[in-house]
Request: fold
Amino acid sequence: MALLTPEDLENLSVQIEENDEIIKRVTGLNIKEICEELYETKLNSPKIGIIPITAGNGIISNFTSSLLFIVQYFGLEGFITEHPDITGYHEAVSQGADILLMADDHIFVAHNLRNEKIVSNHVATGVIYAEIASKFKEASSKDILVIGLGRVGYAGASHLVNKGFNVYACDPNKEFLRKAVDELGIKPYCSDDRKKFSMVLEATPNADTISEGMIEERCLVSTPGIPCGLPPQIGSKYRVDLVMEPLVIGVASMLYSVI
Ligand code: 2YG
Ligand code: MG
Reply:
């Protein structure tokens, strides 16, 4: 799984402001309103304990400070534990945290100690980016394309099927594709099919996965994928609206989903 780099998380406040503006323009709602509608709840005021984890590739220098920024951006009280790992876990619980945020290289979780709900970032990210794509005001049909059926893309595709969208999907990994066809009933799509889409969820760790034949003029591409799947020249030629941000939108979805 692609690990964030400190560079990815630079200027996070600018990145979220810009994306929230685009989301508001193309869906009519901002990220907070989309989460409140999707999870049918407000955040209320849980106290968030953020625990640095040294496992695997270890600490990402601005990861937990970025999480604290996000927690405060949504008006919540949060703290980063002084110590990492289990010492940090003990500290967070002892300091009265209601929700814990912690990540190793394989999974990033939010765990609500009050209602025992737990969610992973890849599921919460897949669902919220799918939700954003599906709310495109100018969409001409309920046909939507999902590129990438790994943990994030599968969660997004599953959410869209549950919402009654006609989900077309592609993934070079035949096993991922077969699994999504069998379990979700999505329609396989490959780039030389003549069909074009006005809504696209791109969830791959690869660049330039979107080609001209896939998209309608003025479509919406919603992607948590780093690097970006939309080649800039195609983005400008087809005047594509692009929602792409490294962490805030996914974490917002995590927090609302465990309330
Ligand atoms: O506590 C730390 O600093 C590190 N143990 C954090 C490691 C996070 C690794 N995971 C990732 O970089 C991403 N999967 C996080 C989610 C990105 C969503 N676009
Ligand atoms: Mg990508």
